[in-house]
């Protein structure tokens, strides 16, 4: 019966065909319809490696490199491969014991598994790195050295200007979504590094690498067919003179204050010193983390760029501007004189003056006569040409704004502060509408009271005077290699001329300022062979209601004809301006204009000034307390808790932005008007830093 | 008679070509699993260090054996069928003594140059023995006695296989239902088997109590609608009640028993992971004590990786040696049981479809060959080969794409491994040899 069941072959064939069809349908749905598996496969099988381009360099005005890249090495370990390596030698070189060694290996395994590389010691110092490299054969293949690019500062100066890099945090990533940053990246945190991050960072490349089931890289995908190349960051050419910057930092050693020097023709900043500052090299290399925390907790707030982030009353340097306004408004002329019996009695309670006498504009500036400028401003405010006090005061404020005060100048550095020029609104808020007159704010006429300026604004004010009626926005960067693609420099070419004042008026003021240098308060700031126009300032200030030693101010430009440098110097609590601020400015001017300091006497002066210690006693006290904690090696928590508070109390740091903080000022001023209590307002950023680094403990403290 | 024709004219060359093509595809796939860019190709080939070069050597050895088989007398196979079957049983028993443990099962006999798996070889012997038995005159598979003996021959190796922890391989023996069906086994066995499989899957998916209720409702409904027929024929009622009680027993007792006592926990896990559930039969306390960290069965990982590799291939595939999943060793056991994933990733749906059609063509060709045999022996043998091949193919591919549980079954002619390649070569070439004597009546 061989053919009895012949037809059953068809059934069997159908079973075979149907089964294969089912498989094919399933394959089709897996491979063609579903994209899920493609995504899963790419996720686990392909590694997108970001290739970091070299960051852009920064040059000074003479083409010297002031910020560049260099390589530092990390010692990496693959725990699964360290069997048989010479651990003893390694520990000896690194100066660690076996317990520490074991701890690190265990940490590495917990963090990255034993077959993947982890950092064993980051940022090796030169000599350790050389020793390890020499003995590498003893450590391979469990250990290897990995290059890491870091920033390098050939002149070790200008830390506050150049800024530093830091690892990006979640906030940053949220803000810059889609710009290619991933966690672990470094980005500019302050200074030029932050302002020009877009330009400096260059364009990241992406390499597609193949990865295996243990997350190890096995090669390039398709030999790099899909890779994109990294493009190096663009270089910045700045207007800084790095030697001038170095000199400035040297002169400001052991002083609290600031120097700003501007080229009036271009608005380019020549030097910008905030003191106390820090050496930028502290923030590269092996000790970075330790140094960073120390600097952050230092009560002197070295990270604060006082030139743009701190407020000072401009003091007598402000008088030059009052002269301009008086002449322009026609309430005085060059020959108008006022008699000063030793004080200004125009408002009942006398406002003291140094030299009694009868003054016209030029000698008034030369001798810095308070009475004269009080009268001038009184005339401006009570000018019958204006219908009300409000309008005349606002007209006055309008002039001040035109001179670059009371608003952010737009310098290419982050965290610039606006300063303050009072308007009718200011006094309405403080005293109520119609309940004030000139006498309420008479001290404004001599640059005290509600006037607040940053040192940059004062230097810019000098540039304005030097140019006889215009200024260009002060800036650090002149040009960007490869063109200004983002239009970041466009604003720096514009001449700001808000009011037109005839040259003759400026000449009168210049005369007065030149007189200051020759026979007035600025005799100590004379520069041999150069016609300097300057103005000293002595700023009264108090801290927590206690009167402190005056701030010394000096502002100048030189040479008088064809000015090439405008400068402002402030030394906090230095007393009379002529002894510190003025000679510092004179040395700076000489250095810039003549390219060197001539003569032994002048050179000795540099040394003498740099040794002069003007750190105010209350800061010395805070420092001592801070140092003792460092020695006690308390946890970061304790340091944070105690010493940020000290720092804040000492310098009067504030977390809020001042242009909005009128309410607060009202409170301060109503207590101690007209003298301002707040000497320095730290930018919010500094405080934010502290919070970030030191954790939640800070945030629990209420901001003052 | 056509016996005077030379053997080369009588050989079914189409089968030989199919055999060659599939083995070559297998070699290329194994190569692509192992070869990493930068490896020295010739070093790999000549050094015999790599699986692909070793597989090539196995292949050459198989070719020698194939020629040898083609030169033997067909009568030898009928004559030795029962003897070989006995030898197979003895070898399987020998593993309990000589066996080498590989992956938790003691089913391998080390031979020095390779490890032999008697369960694999026994498939051939069983096929021959079954053919021998069914080719006896007066065998009628509709009779219980013949059914019993045929089932005994076919399923005896299952017992040894299960004892060796090779449940997966044991299942292959159910493939002999195909030749038995062709030779007259009532279709009710196939239907019954299929129904049982459906019931099994439903049991895994639904809670037992619910299933018993559903079965009872169905039975009640059937009785209700057929109540008029019972008066004429009482047997129907008994049949329905009988089926209902068997189903309930199966659901309530047999399946739990199988999963608790017969299957190893890992096998139960695999089967459950296929239907996407955790194994409910495992006694919680014992696993918790033994392996508190194990949360998901490992097999989930295999199937997931296998699906990712195949699924990411797309329509045309990523190209030869360009599969990221293959190159990254993501698929475990990729060169053996999961060799299909390598092809699927590199050559995509097109490659998979071509391979599937090649296999289908081979299956249909074997059925065609079977039907042109004069002797029952050759026909049964051919159907046995078709059945075994089909079962391997369906289960192996099924497990790589998540249609079948992961049981260690190789892809015929493609998977790495001497035992598997040797078994299928011998099996196919015996068929080709028998086919050359298709005009002869072998007994």
Class computed from helices, strands and strand pairing of chain B:
mainly alpha
Principal-axes geometry of chain A comes out as elongated
- What's the CATH C level of the domain at 309-525 in chain A? Alpha Beta
CATH homologous superfamily heading of the domain at 309-525 in chain A:
DD-peptidase/beta-lactamase superfamily
Separate helix tally of chain A: 27
What is the number of beta strands of chain B? 3
Query: Which descriptor suits the 3D outline of chain B?
Result: globular
The parts of chain A where pLDDT drops under 50 for at least 5 residues are 633-704
Q: How many structural domains in the coordinates of chain B?
A: 1
Proportion in β-strands of chain B = under 5%
CATH fold field value of the domain at 309-525 in chain A: Beta-lactamase
Describe the structure.
The complex is a heterodimer of chains A (704) and B (443). Chain A has 704 residues and is an alpha+beta fold. Among the domains of chain A are: 70-146; 309-525, 3-Layer(aba) Sandwich (Beta-lactamase). Chain A has 27 helices and 22 strands. In chain A, a hairpin with a 6-residue loop joins strand 14 (343-344) and strand 15. The model of chain A is unreliable at 633-704 (pLDDT under 50). Chain B has one domain (7-184, 298-436). Chain B is 70% helix and 2% strand. Chain B contains 20 helices and 3 strands. Chain B has helices at 7-10, 13-34, 41-47, 51-71, 74-98, 118-134, 144-163, 167-171, 177-182, 187-205, 208-225, 227-232, 234-262, 265-274, 284-290, 298-311, 324-327, 339-371, 376-400, 418-436, and strands spanning 100-102, 105-110, 115-116. Chain B is globular, with a radius of gyration of 24 Å. The model of chain B is unreliable at 283-299 (pLDDT under 50). At the A-B interface, helix 1 and helix 2 of A face helix 9, helix 16, helix 17, helix 18 and helix 19 of B.
Give the topology, please.
The complex is a heterodimer of chains A (704) and B (443).
Chain A lengths: L7 H26 L2 H10 E6 L6 E2 L5 E13 L9 H8 L3 H15 L5 E7 L1 H9 L1 H4 L3 E10 L6 H4 L2 E3 L2 H6 L10 E3 L2 H5 L1 H4 L4 E7 L5 E4 L15 E3 L3 H10 L5 E6 L6 E7 L12 H10 L8 H4 L9 H11 L8 E3 L2 E2 L6 E2 L4 E3 L1 H6 L3 H12 L7 H14 L21 H8 L23 H12 L4 E2 L4 E4 L14 E2 L6 H16 L14 E11 L2 E13 L6 E7 L9 H14 L5 H12 L5 H16 L3 H16 L10 H11 L11 H11 L1 H4 L5
Parallel strand pairs in A: 2-10
Antiparallel strand pairs in A: 1-8, 2-3, 3-4, 3-5, 6-7, 8-9, 10-18, 11-12, 11-22, 13-16, 14-15, 17-19, 20-21, 21-22
Helix pairs in contact in A: 11-21, 14-16, 14-20, 18-25, 23-24
Chain B lengths: L6 H4 L2 H22 L6 H7 L3 H21 L2 H25 L1 E3 L2 E6 L4 E2 L1 H17 L9 H20 L3 H5 L5 H6 L4 H19 L2 H18 L1 H6 L1 H29 L2 H10 L9 H7 L7 H14 L12 H4 L11 H33 L4 H25 L17 H19 L7
Antiparallel strand pairs in B: 1-2, 2-3
Helix pairs in contact in B: 2-4, 2-18, 4-20, 5-6, 6-7, 6-19, 6-20, 10-13, 11-13, 16-18, 18-19, 19-20
């Amino acid at each position: 019966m061989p053919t009895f069941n012949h037809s059953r072959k068809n059934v069997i064939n159908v079973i075979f065909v149907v089964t294969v069809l089912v498989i094919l349908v399933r394959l089709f749905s897996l491979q063609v319809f579903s994209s899920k598996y493609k995504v899963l496969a790419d996720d686990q099988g392909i590694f997108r490696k970001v290739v970091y381009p070299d960051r852009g360099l920064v040059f000074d005005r003479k083409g010297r490199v002031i910020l560049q890249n260099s390589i530092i090495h990390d010692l990496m370990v693959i725990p699964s491969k360290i069997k048989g390596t010479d651990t003893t030698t390694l520990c000896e070189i690194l100066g660690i014991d076996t317990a520490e060694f074991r701890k690190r290996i265990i940490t590495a395994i917990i963090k990255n598994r034993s077959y993947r590389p982890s950092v064993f010691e980051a940022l090796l110092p030169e000599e350790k790195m050389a020793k390890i490299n020499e003995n590498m054969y003893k450590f391979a293949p469990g250990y290897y050295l990995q290059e890491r690019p870091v920033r390098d500062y050939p002149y070790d100066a200008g830390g506050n200007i150049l800024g530093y890099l830091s690892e990006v945090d979640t906030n940053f990533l949220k803000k810059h979504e889609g710009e290619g940053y991933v966690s672990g990246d470094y980005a500019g945190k302050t200074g030029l590094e932050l302002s020009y991050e877009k330009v400096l960072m260059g364009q990241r490349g992406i390499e597609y690498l193949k990865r295996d089931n243990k997350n190890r890289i096995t090669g390039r995908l398709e030999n790099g067919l899909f890779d994109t190349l990294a493009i190096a960051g663009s270089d910045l050419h700045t207007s800084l003179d790095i030697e001038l910057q170095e000199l400035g930092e040297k002169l400001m050693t052991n002083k609290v204050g600031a120097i700003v020097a501007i080229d009036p023709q271009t608005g380019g900043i020549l030097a910008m010193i905030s003191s106390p500052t820090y050496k930028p090299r502290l923030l590269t290399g092996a000790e970075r983390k330790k140094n960073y925390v120390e600097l952050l907790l230092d009560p002197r707030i070295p990270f604060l760029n006082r030139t743009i982030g701190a407020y000072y009353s401009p003091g007598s340097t402000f008088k030059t501007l009052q002269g301009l306004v008086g002449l322009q408004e026609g309430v005085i002329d060059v020959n108008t004189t006022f008699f000063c019996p030793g004080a200004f009695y125009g408002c009942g309670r006398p406002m003291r003056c140094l030299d009694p006498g009868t003054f016209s504009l030029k000698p008034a500036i030369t001798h810095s006569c308070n009475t004269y400028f009080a009268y001038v401003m009184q005339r401006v405010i009570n000018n019958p040409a204006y219908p009300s006090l409000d309008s005349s005061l606002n007209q006055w404020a309008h002039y001040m704004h035109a001179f670059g005060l009371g608003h952010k100048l737009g310098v290419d550095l982050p965290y610039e502060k606006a300063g303050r020029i009072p308007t009718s609104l200011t006094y309405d808020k403080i005293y109520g509408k119609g309940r004030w007159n000139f006498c309420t704010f008479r001290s404004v006429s001599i640059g005290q009271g509600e006037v607040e300026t940053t040192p940059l604004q004062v230097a810019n004010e000098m540039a304005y005077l030097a140019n006889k009626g215009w200024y260009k926005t002060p800036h650090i960067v002149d040009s960007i290699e490869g063109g200004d693609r983002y239009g970041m420099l466009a604003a720096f070419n514009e001449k700001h001329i808000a009011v037109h004042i005839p040259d003759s008026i400026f000449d009168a003021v210049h005369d007065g300022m030149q007189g200051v240098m020759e026979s007035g308060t600025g005799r100590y700031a004379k520069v041999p062979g150069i016609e300097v126009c300057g103005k000293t300032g002595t700023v009264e200030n108090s801290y927590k209601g206690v009167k402190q030693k005056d701030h010394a101010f000096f502002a100048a430009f030189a040479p008088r004809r064809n000015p090439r440098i405008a400068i402002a110097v402030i030394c906090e609590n230095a007393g009379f301006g002529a002894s510190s601020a003025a000679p510092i400015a004179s040395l700076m001017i000489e250095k810039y204009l003549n390219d060197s300091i001539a003569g032994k006497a002048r050179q000795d002066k540099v040394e003498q000034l740099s040794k002069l210690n003007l750190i105010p006693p209350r800061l010395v006290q805070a420092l001592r307390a801070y140092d003792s904690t460092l020695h006690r090696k308390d946890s970061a928590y304790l340091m944070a808790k105690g010493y940020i508070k000290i720092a804040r109390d000492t310098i009067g740091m504030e977390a809020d932005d001042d242009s909005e903080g009128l309410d607060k000022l009202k409170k301060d001023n109503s207590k101690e008007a007209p003298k301002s209590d707040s000497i320095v307002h730290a930018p919010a950023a500094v405080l934010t830093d502290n919070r970030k680094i030191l954790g939640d403990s800070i945030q629990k403290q209420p901001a003052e | 008679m056509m016996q005077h024709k030379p053997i080369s004219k009588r050989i079914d060359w189409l089968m030989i070509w199919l055999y060659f093509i599939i083995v070559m595809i297998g070699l290329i796939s194994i190569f692509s699993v192992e070869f990493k860019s930068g490896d020295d190709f010739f070093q790999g080939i000549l050094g015999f260090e790599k699986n692909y070069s070793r597989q090539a050597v196995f292949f050459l050895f198989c070719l020698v054996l194939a020629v040898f088989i083609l030169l033997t007398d067909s009568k030898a196979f009928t004559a030795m069928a029962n003897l070989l079957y006995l030898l197979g049983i003895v070898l399987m028993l020998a593993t309990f003594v000589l066996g080498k443990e590989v992956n938790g099962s003691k089913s391998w006999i080390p031979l020095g140059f390779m490890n032999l798996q008697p369960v694999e070889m026994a498939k051939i012997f069983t096929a021959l023995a079954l053919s021998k038995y069914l080719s006896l005159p007066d065998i009628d598979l509709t009779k219980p006695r013949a059914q019993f003996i045929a089932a005994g021959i076919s399923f005896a190796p299952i017992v040894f296989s299960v004892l060796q922890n090779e449940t997966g391989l044991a299942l292959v023996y159910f493939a002999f239902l195909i030749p038995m069906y062709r030779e007259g086994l009532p279709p009710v066995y196939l239907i019954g088997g299929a129904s049982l499989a459906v019931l099994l899957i439903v049991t895994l998916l639904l809670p037992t109590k619910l299933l018993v209720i559903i079965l009872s409702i169905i039975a009640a409904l059937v009785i209700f609608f057929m109540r008029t027929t019972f008066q004429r024929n009482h047997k129907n009622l008994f049949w329905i009640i009988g089926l209902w009680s068997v189903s309930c027993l199966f659901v309530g007792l047999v399946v739990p028993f199988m999963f608790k006592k017969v299957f190893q926990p890992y096998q139960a896990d695999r089967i459950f992971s296929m239907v996407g559930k955790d194994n409910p039969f495992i006694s919680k306390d014992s696993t918790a004590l033994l392996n508190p960290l194990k949360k998901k069965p490992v097999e989930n990982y295999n199937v997931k990786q296998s699906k990712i590799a195949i699924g990411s291939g797309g329509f045309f595939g990523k190209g030869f040696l360009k599969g990221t999943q293959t190159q990254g060793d993501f698929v475990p056991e990729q060169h053996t049981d999961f060799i299909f994933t390598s092809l699927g990733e590199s050559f995509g749906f097109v490659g998979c479809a071509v391979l599937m059609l090649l296999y289908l063509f081979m299956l249909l060709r074997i059925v065609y060959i079977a039907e042109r045999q004069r002797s029952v022996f050759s026909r049964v043998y051919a159907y046995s080969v078709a059945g075994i091949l089909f079962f391997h193919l369906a289960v192996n591919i099924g497990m790589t794409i998540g249609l079948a549980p992961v049981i260690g079954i190789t892809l015929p002619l493609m998977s790495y491994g001497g035992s598997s390649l040797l078994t299928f070569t011998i099996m196919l070439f015996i068929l080709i040899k028998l086919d050359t004597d298709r005009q002869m009546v072998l007994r």
